[in-house]
Specification:
Layout: H1 2-14, H2 30-45, E1 49-52, E2 58-62, E3 71-77, H3 90-106, E4 113-119, H4 132-137, H5 156-163, E5 180-188, H6 193-197, E6 201-207, E7 209-218, E8 222-223, H7 235-253, E9 256-258, E10 262-265, E11 271-272, E12 275-284, H8 287-307, E13 311-320, E14 323-324, H9 327-339, E15 346-349, H10 354-358, E16 364-369, H11 385-406
Parallel strand pairs: 3-4, 3-5, 5-16, 6-15
Antiparallel strand pairs: 1-2, 2-4, 6-14, 6-16, 7-12, 7-13, 8-11, 9-12, 10-12
């Protein structure tokens, strides 16, 4: 019953979208407000006191048996990418509410509070910066973000005011210094491993650290019909070789690397490309390994471009360290999976999550839920009722295993 209700609620939230016929819900919008209001109603019905914090995150507190400061946090995010699926992030928040509802129905209390959070902006779809909600909770808010503007030119500070929040009070959202026992996040896998292994759930061992770079290669433009092949300095040909280097070295080092965007200029059918711009995203759960791979990639691309008489420039536009899940929560997670009759498979997360930010203030643990063909950030996201039911059992067991570890 609770799994079916959870999926119905995912459908209900999917209808709260700025885009008709598709799902899009971004930070500090009317859709964000309406989503928070609905989720907080469900939190209240599950026995929690619900509220919105100074950064726009919505919270529900299920009080412990005594007046205490310790709290265990469960949750994920409620915002989406554009043309999104209905489960990425959202399922984790609603699962946490369902688990608390189970405890509330049985009158079960713990020697700590359970705080359920729906983070306001993990995806960064509106202003570009990611993990905004969880970074505020972790006390890592950068005031410079308030100057970021969306596609309509609206500054984030103005969006805060329109939403009914005071941008000068964001620091009040911080839980840094609070006595937090840990943070559990349930999330669809966003990959095909669990499906290939025939497993409904897995335990996340670490969240990969990512570095992103932008490259510019400069050759010489020329007429496509009059410049002999041996005299060309074709920037796009050099870039094609660079892409092959990225792929080969990523495989060699055992990391993942992607050239996701490439553009040749001047971009005419009869002109040799004089310049080429491309991006690189490289990730690993081992920062040192990732950095060695990147060092090799940069050296080989540089040598390749020198031979091609093409100049290379690059700059790093993003860097995030890998985050390991806490050994104590990994142990609790394994026991939770085994208690529910499941193999305790551990696997890394190649995608970023709010847990990365929360690791600055507490131990983190994550479960992945099998999703069809590993599809995410797309309307075709799909999970089964049976898998969701198991996920609720495992998340419930993880809470009780966390309690047992305190004894």
């Amino acid at each position: 019953m609770s799994a079916a209700r959870l999926l119905q609620r995912c459908d209900q939230l999917a209808a709260i979208s700025v885009t008709e016929g598709a799902i899009c819900r971004t930070y500090l919008t009317d859709e964000h407000r309406r989503c928070n209001q609905q989720v907080m109603q469900w939190m209240e019905a599950a026995g929690m006191h619900a509220y919105t914090d100074a950064a726009g995150n919505c919270w529900g507190r299920y009080p412990g048996v005594e007046d205490m400061e310790q709290a265990l946090v469960l949750g994920s995010h409620l915002d989406t990418v554009r043309n999104a699926g209905r489960y990425d992030g959202i399922l984790g928040v609603l699962a946490a509410i369902e688990v608390v509802e189970r405890f509330h129905a049985r009158g079960r209390r713990f020697p700590f509070h359970i705080d359920v959070v729906g983070f306001a902006d993990e995806e960064g779809s509106r202003f570009g910066a990611t993990l905004l909600g969880s970074r505020a909770v972790a006390g890592q808010w950068d005031p410079a973000w308030l100057e970021l503007r969306d596609a309509d030119g609206i500054a984030m500070a103005e969006a805060f005011t329109r939403f009914g929040l005071d941008p000068e009070q964001i620091a009040q959202a911080s839980r840094a210094g609070n006595k937090l026992l840990g943070y559990w996040e349930l999330h669809i896998e966003q990959g095909p491993v669990l499906e290939q292994r025939g497993l409904p759930l897995g335990l996340v061992s670490a969240i990969a650290g990512a570095r992103r770079l932008q490259f510019t290669l400069r050759g010489r433009a020329g007429h496509a019909g009059t410049v002999p092949m041996e005299m060309r300095r074709d920037a796009l040909v050099a870039a094609a070789g660079a892409v092959q280097i990225v792929d080969a070295q990523a495989r060699h080092f055992g990391v993942v690397a992607t050239v996701g965007k490439i553009e040749a200029r001047p971009g005419s059918v009869n002109v040799i490309p004089g310049s080429c711009h491309f991006t690189l995203d490289i990730r690993s759960g081992d920062d040192a390994l990732r950095d060695r791979a990147l060092e090799t990639i940069l050296r080989e691309i540089g040598e390749h471009c020198e031979c091609a008489q093409v100049a290379m420039e690059y700059c790093e536009i993003h860097g995030a360290a890998a985050v390991a899940c806490a050994p104590s929560l990994l142990d609790a997670g394994r026991r939770a999976l085994q208690r529910c009759g499941l193999e305790p498979l551990s696997l890394p997360s190649g995608a970023g999550h709010d847990a990365m930010a929360m690791a600055a203030v507490t131990d983190i643990g994550m479960f992945f839920l099998r999703c069809r063909e590993g599809i995410s950030h797309h309307p075709d996201e799909s999970v089964t009722t049976e898998d969701v039911a198991l996920a609720l059992d495992v998340l419930e067991a993880a809470v009780t295993e966390t309690e047992n570890s305190m004894i």
